[in-house]
Specification:
96 residues; mainly alpha; single chain
């Protein structure tokens, strides 16, 4: 196969599948990497529609893009609003 025949991986397209969304978030959460978590949320929000996600989260579309950008640092309240808008629930367990 030639390099020119390879297709570029489109994470937003792949994230149309709810199981991919779940796995993406679980991997980012397990790593404990804040940029990875915000990136995962960004991919999912794009897959579901940024405007709709922003409306449900109660923030503007530009604010959503900014919060979930590579340089974004969303507040906990913004993060919770975005997760709520996406229908994402976090479950916590103590480790022994």
């Amino acid at each position: 196969m030639k390099v020119s025949e390879l297709q570029t991986f489109n994470s937003v397209e792949a994230a149309q599948d709810p199981l991919v969304q779940e796995e993406l978030l679980n991997m980012a959460w397990e790593d404990g990497n804040i940029p990875a978590i915000t990136h995962a949320l960004s991919v999912i929000a794009k897959a579901r529609g940024m405007s709709e996600t922003a409306n449900k989260a109660g923030i503007s579309r530009p604010a959503l893009y900014k919060a979930l950008s590579d340089k974004g640092n969303p507040s906990l309240s913004s993060l919770m609003g975005i997760m709520r808008a996406l229908g994402i629930q976090a479950t916590f367990h103590t480790s022994a």
